[in-house]
Amino acid sequence: MKVTLGKILKPQGIKGEVKVLPLSNPDFFKKISLVTINNKEASIESASVRDGFVYIKFDCINDRNTAESYRDAEICAEKDALPDLENGQFYYDDLIGCQVYYPNGELIGEIIDIQNYGNADIFEIHKGFSNILCPYIDGVFTEIDTKKKRIVVDEKRYREVTEYDEN
C-alpha cells in the first residue's frame, strides 16, 4: 500500500532540486531512498529540512526544466518501507475513515480528510449534512485506535475548538 509523503511545490535552484510540502514526518525523506513520483520510481539522492519544507534531489531530476515538469506531483512510498512511527504518531490514511465519538459513546462523525496549513493537522469530520474542522492539538483526542477505526475526544476540549460563537 502506498502512502503519500509530500507534494512537490517548485524547482529549487538550477541542478534539479525541488521544494516539497511534507504531508508526513519531514525526516522520513532522509530515511528512505526509493519513492514514486507520478507513478514513476525515483531515488532520493539527498534531502534536507528547512523552515518546515523538504528540499530533495532525485536521481531522475537533473535540471530546473525537468524539475518544473514535476510541479504539484505527489511523492509516494510503500508503507512497509517507511520507518516505524513513534507512540502517538499516525499515518493520514490510517485516520481517514475513523469514527469520532464523545466519551459517552455518542457518534460525532467520520474523518474524511486531513489538512495541514502549518501549525497543526486539521481533521475534517463529516457529520450529517455538514463537515466539522477540528485541529489535532493537545487535549482534544484522548483515544485513537486505528485498528478499530475509533477515536474518542474530550468533549469539553472538542467543543472549545469546534464550536464558534458568532456574536
Distance between the termini: 47 Å
Kindly state the mean pLDDT as a whole number?
Answer: 90
Could you tell me the strand content as a percent range? over 45%
- The outline comes out as elongated
Name the helix and strand elements from N-terminus to C-terminus, one letter apiece: EEHEEEHEHEEEEEEH
Question: Count of helices?
Answer: 4
- Please describe the biggest sheet, giving its number of strands, its sense, and whether it closes into a barrel: 6 strands, antiparallel, barrel
Q: What is the highest CATH level, the class of the largest domain?
A: Mainly Beta
Low-confidence stretches: none
What level of helicity do the residues show?
A: 10-25%
Structural class by SSE content: mainly beta
CATH architecture of the largest domain: Beta Barrel
Total domains: 2
CATH superfamily of the largest domain: RimM
Strands ordered across the widest β-sheet: 1-2-5-4-3-6
For the secondary structure, the number of strands is 12
CATH topology of the largest domain: Elongation Factor Tu (Ef-tu), domain 3
How much is the radius of gyration in Å?
18 Å
Structure description:
It is a single chain. With 167 residues, the protein is mostly beta strands. It has helices at residues 28-31, 64-69, 92-95, 155-162, and strands spanning 2-12, 17-22, 34-37, 40-50, 53-58, 74-78, 99-101, 107-116, 121-127, 130-135, 141-145, 150-153. The protein has two domains: 2-81, RimM (Elongation Factor Tu (Ef-tu), domain 3, Beta Barrel), CATH 2.40.30; 92-162, SH3 type barrels (Roll). It contains four helices and twelve strands. The strands form two sheets. A six-stranded antiparallel barrel has the order 1-2-5-4-3-6. The protein has a six-stranded mixed β-sheet with strand order 10-9-8-7-12-11, with helices on one face. Strand 1 and strand 2 (17-22) form a beta hairpin. It is elongated, with a radius of gyration of 18 Å. The relative contact order is 0.15.
